[in-house]
């Protein structure tokens, strides 16, 4: 018979809880408060909280109840609720001596260290509890000397004071003086053997020494004294996580969650557990909850940075790590991550600057040495890279990766023999995987030491003879030796092991193509496909082969087969839809993407494909709808919000474009693209003051970038203040000496009436940077617009001399020749037309010059073509009307002019168009 007693017990507990809530109406406030105090003493915080909430329903202004509730929330790790109640107690008149120590604990728990120093008084007459909290805050901020002075003063005032002893113990532990820390903790425990903070610190110090069993005993002792102590559960969970006891950690956190469902510490520990188990998205969700409640929670910021890096999102990772490093500028783990981010962006110098101070403080950290070596290797400082890798390999002599990296750095120094020696050692140390051996073979091939490369790959073959990668590599060595027969045999060996191994298939196909045997290559792929009839990669390879031969219909069939074989897979659908777009089959691309997404409404990849195809097909409204849906799933994608912003702008919705750009910044506050777009949109909305605020925010966030100063100058230009703008453009130019800023300086100087200075400055720049075609083109265009035709001609001629195929320069040069009555106008326009026969601007210039030179028939043909390609270009329509009038077709000319003037209230040639119409 099944035992039902546990079920009855649970039911009774539930009933008791309900009765506790429902049947207290007759209790007095004093009785409820006494009950709460009793529950707190018995270690039943949830029951105490219920009684206090019942009391506060009756008496919301009861300061004692608020104070007690705040202290109980602190015990359960719910720092935010604690602060809320303690603040209310303070406003209701609770004594500062009672409230401030508790508030300080809440702020420290929530990671709001600065508030402790700002709001807790620092004069020596304050109670020890307040001074100790200030000392702990100083330690958290790395201000150890100040903390030492404070704790020493507390000790001098009251020798043996527990808070001071524990503060000095924490300081000693941070400075690596473990024995001193232990003595101080023992001294504190002599006076108060049940002091929970002392026991916890004892456990922490034991963990620092790697003595996990002693640490566990200390944390367990806390639970014996106070079974519902949440922090001890968290500490035990963290210890379990360190030892990879993930199930035990989860059990500890489940117990802690029962006592304190709102604890930030529990959320943080759960995030760490998820991170260690590779559940990065779950970890990030918990960390975002912590940071939403406590934006300055340092452990959460650090872990969030690590999680984002693991998710392959370096920019969000940096956004979390920057505030952490601002508070802890020499934190080893955070700095390593930031250095990795900088290296990923190609900013090796920035990575080196970050790592250099740590190499002094942590000279024997193998990972740090390895990172420094990699940074210098990427910066091509091969001698320094070798030094770091060599030291790391001495500290960890049996690490294959270090010897492999040392080998690469030796290669950079030109020390091929030593490089090969290190790679050989790496290969010997790692005989379980072929990576180091592969690098060795590739290095020998690069050195044209093909015989040794063959010996090395044959040695690898003994260990990894059943690995198609090794056999494919051997085929590559034989290719280098010019032995096509042996190469082919090696590639075929690889395929004998895995008939679908695409690298070997591709290598054999390339040999076939080199021998002008494309059909043999096709047969090879088809044979592999016969073994795996629904392999989309092989079908895609066949499509690529067909496309390379110009057989687009066949390529399409293969891609359609790959999609038909796996209709639910996104990758084949993406390849096929892109093919449709490239070949002009837009309707098919749209139908495919939409069908896939409708069949997979919850698949973000399918939705992203649909949005991408709609965007590429020019269906802005549909693309916007799809991207908005995608944004409800991908809530942390700033680039997605920027795409939404661009679509709103394309649809003429400036306000919503602005909101999307701001959402992008909320996700990634330092996203420069979003800030640039915001400034432009605010100017478009005639809100220069707001635009100026954004520009100055960029300056504060990134003072070493020119962008913030350039943006402020752009705002001033929009406000018709060019002289003020010049100063800021010059400031930007001092940071980033680039052509586009020279252009902005020129614009501002001309607008300020300083044309001579503008010409001198930009002329000097172009003499020093003759390759800057974009700046010269701008200057030529500016001179053309200003009707300084000779100057414009000189610049256009220089562009064309260096770039004869530049259609824009040729077209504008032809127009400048026409305005200057230069006979070269028609020939130059014809040259541009030969390069771009369907460009409406080129057709318009060519046609108008022909008309001016009396070739009415040819001019009319050219201008008709231009007008059909650009039906909304008012100038082109006017030119065609003028040509029609010259041919004597006055009704057609009059009709076109009437339509043009009705549709365009303001365009450059409006007066000429009206005059022509009046003459017809």
UniProtKB/TrEMBL annotation:
Gene3D superfamilies listed in its UniProt record: Tetratricopeptide repeat domain
Cleaved signal peptide residues: 1-22
Keyword Transcription: no
Sorted UniProt keywords: Lipoprotein, Signal, TPR repeat
PROSITE patterns: PROKAR_LIPOPROTEIN, TPR
Each TPR repeat, start to end: 366-399, 840-873
Superkingdom of the source species: Bacteria
Name this polypeptide is given: Putative PEP-CTERM system TPR-repeat lipoprotein
Species, as recorded: Janthinobacterium psychrotolerans
């Amino acid at each position: 018979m099944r035992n039902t007693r546990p079920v009855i017990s649970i039911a009774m507990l539930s009933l008791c809880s309900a009765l506790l809530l429902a049947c207290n109406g007759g209790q007095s406030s004093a009785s409820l408060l006494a009950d709460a105090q009793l529950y707190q003493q018995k270690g039943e915080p949830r029951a105490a909280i219920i009684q206090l909430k019942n009391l506060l329903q009756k008496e919301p202004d009861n300061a004692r109840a608020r104070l007690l509730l705040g202290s109980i929330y602190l015990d359960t790790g719910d720092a935010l609720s604690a602060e809320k109640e303690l603040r209310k107690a303070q406003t209701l008149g609770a004594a500062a001596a009672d409230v401030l120590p508790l508030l300080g604990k809440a702020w420290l728990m929530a990671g709001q260290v600065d508030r402790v120093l700002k709001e807790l008084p620092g004069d020596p007459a304050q109670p020890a509890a307040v001074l100790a909290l200030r000392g702990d805050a100083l330690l958290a901020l790395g201000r150890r000397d100040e903390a030492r002075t404070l704790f020493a003063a507390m000790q001098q005032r009251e020798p043996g004071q527990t808070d001071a002893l524990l503060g000095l113990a924490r300081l000693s532990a941070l400075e690596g003086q473990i024995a001193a820390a232990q003595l101080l903790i023992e001294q504190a425990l002599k006076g108060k053997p049940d002091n929970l903070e002392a026991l916890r610190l004892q456990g922490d110090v034991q963990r620092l020494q790697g003595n996990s069993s002693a640490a566990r005993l200390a944390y367990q002792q806390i639970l014996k004294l106070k079974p519902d102590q949440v922090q001890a559960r968290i500490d035990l969970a963290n210890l379990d996580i360190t030892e990879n006891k993930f199930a035990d950690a989860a059990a500890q956190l489940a117990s802690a969650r029962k006592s304190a469902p709102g604890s930030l510490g529990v959320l943080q520990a759960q995030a760490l557990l998820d991170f260690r188990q590779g559940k990065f998205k779950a970890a990030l969700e918990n960390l975002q909850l912590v940071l939403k409640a406590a934006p300055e929670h340092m452990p959460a910021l650090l872990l969030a940075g690590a999680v984002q890096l693991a998710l392959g999102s370096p920019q969000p990772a940096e956004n979390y790590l920057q505030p952490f490093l601002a508070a802890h500028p020499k934190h080893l783990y955070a700095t390593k991550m930031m250095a990795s981010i900088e290296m990923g962006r190609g900013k090796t110098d920035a990575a080196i600057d970050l790592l250099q101070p740590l190499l002094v403080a942590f000279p024997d950290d193998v990972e740090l040495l390895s990172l420094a070596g990699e940074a210098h290797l990427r910066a091509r400082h091969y001698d320094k890279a070798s030094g770091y890798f060599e030291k790391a390999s001495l500290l960890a002599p049996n690490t294959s990766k270090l010897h492999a990296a040392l080998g690469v750095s030796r290669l950079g120094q030109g020390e091929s023999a030593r490089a090969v020696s290190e790679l050989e050692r790496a290969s010997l140390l790692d005989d379980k995987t072929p990576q180091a051996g592969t690098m060795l073979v590739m290095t020998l091939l690069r050195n044209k030491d093909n015989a040794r490369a063959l010996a090395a790959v044959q040695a690898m073959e003994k260990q990894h003879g059943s690995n198609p990668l090794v056999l494919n590599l051997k085929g590559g060595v034989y290719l280098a030796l010019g032995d096509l027969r042996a190469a082919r045999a090696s590639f075929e060996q690889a395929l004998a092991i895995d008939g679908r191994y695409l690298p070997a298939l591709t290598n054999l196909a390339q040999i076939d193509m080199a021998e002008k045997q494309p059909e043999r290559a096709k047969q090879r792929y088809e044979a592999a496909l016969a073994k795996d009839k629904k392999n989309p990669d092989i079908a895609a390879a066949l499509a690529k082969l067909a496309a390379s031969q110009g057989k687009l219909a066949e390529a399409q069939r293969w891609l359609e087969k790959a999609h038909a074989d796996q209709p639910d897979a996104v990758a084949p659908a993406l390849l096929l839809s892109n093919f449709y777009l490239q070949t002009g089959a837009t309707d098919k691309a749209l139908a495919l993407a939409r069908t896939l997404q409708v069949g997979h409404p919850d698949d973000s990849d399918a939705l992203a494909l649909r949005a991408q195809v709609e965007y590429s097909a020019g269906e802005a409204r549909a693309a916007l709808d799809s991207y908005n849906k995608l944004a409800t799933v991908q809530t942390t994608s700033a680039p997605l919000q920027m795409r939404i912003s661009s679509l709103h702008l394309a649809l003429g919705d400036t306000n919503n474009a602005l909101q999307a750009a701001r959402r992008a910044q909320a996700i990634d506050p330092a996203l420069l693209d979003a800030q640039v777009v915001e400034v432009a949109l605010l100017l478009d909305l005639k809100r220069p003051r707001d635009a100026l605020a954004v520009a100055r925010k960029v300056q504060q966030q990134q003072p070493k970038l020119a962008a913030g100063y350039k943006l402020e100058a752009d705002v001033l230009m929009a406000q018709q203040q060019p002289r003020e703008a010049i100063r800021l453009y010059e400031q930007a130019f001092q940071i980033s000496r680039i052509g586009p800023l020279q252009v902005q300086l020129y614009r501002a100087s001309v607008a300020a009436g300083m044309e001579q200075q503008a010409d001198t400055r930009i002329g000097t720049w172009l003499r020093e940077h003759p390759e800057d075609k974009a700046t010269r083109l701008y200057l030529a265009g500016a001179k053309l617009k200003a009707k300084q035709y000779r100057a414009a001609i000189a610049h256009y001629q220089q562009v064309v001399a260096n770039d004869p195929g530049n259609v824009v320069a040729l077209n504008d040069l032809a127009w400048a020749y026409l305005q200057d009555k230069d006979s070269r106008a028609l020939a130059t326009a014809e040259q541009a037309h030969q390069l771009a026969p369907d460009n409406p601007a080129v057709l318009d210039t060519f046609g108008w010059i022909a008309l001016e030179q009396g070739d009415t028939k040819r001019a009319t043909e050219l201008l008709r073509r231009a007008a059909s390609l650009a039906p909304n270009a008012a100038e082109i329509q006017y030119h065609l009307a003028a040509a029609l009038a010259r041919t004597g077709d006055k009704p057609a000319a009059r009709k076109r002019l009437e339509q043009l003037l009705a549709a365009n209230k303001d365009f450059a040639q409006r007066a000429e168009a009206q005059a022509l119409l009046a003459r017809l």
